[in-house]
Design the sequence.
């Protein structure tokens, strides 16, 4: 997937005809769809094995919700669906928690709402209440609803929704696609974050929805669904947020002009080598290539490098072992960026523990690659 999505990103940076761009867009969308399926299966496996780990860092709630809407807005506009969100004014702006997992829950639910809505609207509503006023940071319970005007769910099918590899009706997979894992993953993530998830729906072949504080009982309802989930989070201060927020990245040309870097790519996969090499070339850099950790050490004996993009898993000597040996050397130390398909938090910590400076997961996105180089330049 790193090769497919990576090469597509490079193609889109070239001068293409409209027909060629349309074909490349189709490859990109298909690749992203396949990546979603792969990620769903991997996430489900992590959850089943108990290896899913939550992080805790300060984040801005509105930014998380806005980023989800930005990602889905294109599809919503294509369908003529009005996608909106409202955050109750009493809800704090800043929280401590795993914002990436919160984003994943929202993406699953909002993407489903848009997918199953032919026309009308999808709305996200956020309310909440403090759990305790005595603790610092304060504990807070969020209640989020995603309401759509879609096809609805029959009441006798609702219990099937949160079962793995299951959808409410066999025809749904044929018409709308999907693995049947999104909701079970969302349920598991919500539970890990101390909350619950449920759905109320007006199905298109019967079924009723109970009145609740998000739906106006006086407003006539035809069909549609409302998914709810609660989360328990700690509130954060603005100062904690400011420490985390970095300056926005400069234009690519600024990065290119700041430094002529000596870069080494360490990867045993030829497609990954070529993608990284061509990406660097597009940014104005040249790079050397090593196929394993032993070659990295040999090349460092001959010259120094500013940055090494180091694959974790390589034959003869892996990236972790090579990094440990580099860090023991008295020679000038390079900036080492792990590049790996291993995406567990424990994998990232292993990379940092042996002395790597940064971490990129495959498939590698251009913006993440760009950010990694800029982080090195910032450290100078």
Sequence:
């Amino acid at each position: 997937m790193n090769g497919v999505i990576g090469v597509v990103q490079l193609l889109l940076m070239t001068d293409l005809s409209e027909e060629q761009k349309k074909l490349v867009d189709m490859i990109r969308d298909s690749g992203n769809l396949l990546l979603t399926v792969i990620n769903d299966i991997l996430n489900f496996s992590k959850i089943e094995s108990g290896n899913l780990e939550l992080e805790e860092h300060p984040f801005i709630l509105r930014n998380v919700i806005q980023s989800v809407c930005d990602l889905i807005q294109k599809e919503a506009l294509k369908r003529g669906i009005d996608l909106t969100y409202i955050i109750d004014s009493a809800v704090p702006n800043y929280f401590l928690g795993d914002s990436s997992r919160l984003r994943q829950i929202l993406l699953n639910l909002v993407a489903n709402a848009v997918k199953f809505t032919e026309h009308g609207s999808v709305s996200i509503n956020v309310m909440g209440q403090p759990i305790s006023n005595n603790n610092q940071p304060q504990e807070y319970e969020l209640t989020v609803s995603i309401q759509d005007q879609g096809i609805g769910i029959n009441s006798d099918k609702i219990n099937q929704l949160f079962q793995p590899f299951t959808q409410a009706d066999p025809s749904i997979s044929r018409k709308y696609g999907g693995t049947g894992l999104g909701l079970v993953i969302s349920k598991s993530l919500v539970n890990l974050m101390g909350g619950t998830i449920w759905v109320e729906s007006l199905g298109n072949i019967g079924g009723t929805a109970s009145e609740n504080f998000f739906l106006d009982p006086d407003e006539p309802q035809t069909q549609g669904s409302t998914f709810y989930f609660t989360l328990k989070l700690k509130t954060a201060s603005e100062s904690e947020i400011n420490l985390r927020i970095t300056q926005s990245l400069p234009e690519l040309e600024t990065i290119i002009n700041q430094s002529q870097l000596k870069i080494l790519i360490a990867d045993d996969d030829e497609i990954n080598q070529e993608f990284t090499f061509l990406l660097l070339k597009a940014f104005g850099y040249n790079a050397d290539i090593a196929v394993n950790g032993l070659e990295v050490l040999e090349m460092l004996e001959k010259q120094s490098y500013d940055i090494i993009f180091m694959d974790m898993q390589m034959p003869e000597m892996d990236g972790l072992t090579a990094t440990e040996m580099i860090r023991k050397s008295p020679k000038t130390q390079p900036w080492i960026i792990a590049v790996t398909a291993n995406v567990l938090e424990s994998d990232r910590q292993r990379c940092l523990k042996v002395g790597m400076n940064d971490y990129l997961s495959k498939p590698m996105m251009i913006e993440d690659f760009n950010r990694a180089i800029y982080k090195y330049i910032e450290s100078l």
About this structure: The two ends are 33 Å apart (CA to CA). The CA atoms of residues 95 and 235 lie 4 Å apart. Residues 167-177, 204-221, 245-258 have pLDDT under 50 and may be disordered. The longest strand covers residues 120-132.
